[in-house]
Amino acid sequence: MEIITNVQFDEVVSKGVVVIDFFANWCGPCKMLAPVLEEVAQELPTVTFAKVDVDQDPSLAGRYGIQSIPHLILFKDGQAVDQISGFVGKDVILEKLNPLL
Prior knowledge:
Blueprint lengths: L1 E2 L2 H8 L3 E7 L4 H16 L4 E6 L4 H6 L7 E6 L2 E7 L4 H8 L4
Parallel strand pairs: 1-3, 2-3
Antiparallel strand pairs: 2-4, 4-5
């Protein structure tokens, strides 16, 4: 999964269904979520997955009011349509994504 910056963010989320993972390198639950997201990404090749390092781009976390990580925001055609906070299993992510596909 590509780590994107504030510069790339709006372009990435503007096309189709996109999952943005807000994370930090020091965050244990973020590290646990990473392989789950990789697995979901392989199952849903039409969904774009990207990551935002909140330590490198705190303005993006502020823009969406993110108070804790890991935090996923699901976008459809540029609009934030759902969010998931904290570590969750693959089934929860798939359940949130399926209506958007």
